């Protein structure tokens, strides 16, 4: 469920007509719903009430400060995968004791910053990182709390259909410590200065629409956790990552209560604190991308609608062949008057196509379209290809809206370049 609905034929974001936002800020822009973010977080909390986990929102899904602050005020922590994301979370008011830091390639400056901030947990992904973190914490006179991220070696994308580029739990992937090396790694960690073992971590990928990948991976982690605890290691928390999918098109992902019941079955006997890292399931359907039609054109075989958003604004269709529902902001007066249209941007790439053969009403210049379910992995993946400006982000709250990231300017973008002395 989201809070983007038609009223008298006009798409609204909560109580705000979308055309009013478009008139005020221009297009394209992202729009986030406070009510949807809040509802999705609350639904998760209710589903997991018997386990009282710490929900560390996956900042990589949506790093806007207003989104992070909204969730932080609801009690969420942050799952960060860069030093920049740790900084974003802290600046958004999320306490360090609710921040976990993953990433297969943490740098020494990133480790230094997170150690000094005394974050809740580092999810360590290699033996080399163990030594780096130990050296860093010791040099700073600090102790870093750690969990080891274990790669359970499941074949998630092959067996379930998750896109290969967002599956992270196979042997061939760069993520985590190999399952068969886990006990050796924990033994090393227990003897390194500056480190305190607190837990174990796993994350197998994203956008799963079946519980089967979790049912394959989690028993291995539970068995390992039990063995580590029996060997006297202080495994007080278990971080099971994220990955629960959302319905973009015809998917039917498990409801949060079913997901919670499955996890409870595994973790309740362990007597460990549970940490989860939801991202897409909270933010995905809480955002839309609004774009204007520039023009329409026929190529002889296809009818194209060229819009002012492009692949640099929303990468998922080009990168993953991802589906996003596309709807007119003003509902068609005659629902039967539709045609097959290709929706494309102006970037100089054949791959800059958002949708092919969608049934939509006839379009003309100036018409507004909404791309649904773009609240996760939308604006965060945007770039400046073709010297296109990063677009605004807007948040609505009831009948009010605010710009929560301004549109980039050409002066700012081009001003980042500097001429070498021989060209000055």
Would you give an account of this structure?
The protein has 424 residues and is α/β, with parallel strands linked by helices. It has a domain at 95-278: Alpha-Beta Barrel (TIM Barrel), CATH 3.20.20.10. Helices cover 29% and strands 25% of the residues. It has 13 helices and 21 strands. The strands form three sheets. Strands 4, 14, 15, 16, 17, 18, 19, 20 and 21 form a nine-stranded mixed β-sheet that branches. Strands 5-6-7-8-9-11-12-13 form an eight-stranded parallel barrel, surrounded by four helices. Helix 7 links the parallel strand 9 and strand 10 (177-178). Helix 2 (34-47) packs parallel to helix 10 (256-267), helix 5 (108-117) packs across helix 6 (127-140) and helix 9 (212-230) runs parallel beside helix 10 (256-267). Residues 160-172 have low confidence and may be disordered.
- Judging from the principal axes of the Cα atoms, what is the shape? globular
**How far apart lie the N and C ends?**
56 Å
Strand percentage: 15-25%
Could you say what the CATH architecture of one domain is? Alpha-Beta Barrel
The CATH class of one domain is Alpha Beta
| CATH topology (fold) name of one domain | TIM Barrel
What is the arithmetic mean of pLDDT?
A: 94
Task: Identify the notable features of this structure and list them briefly.
424 residues; alpha/beta; TIM Barrel; nine-stranded mixed beta sheet; 13 helices; globular
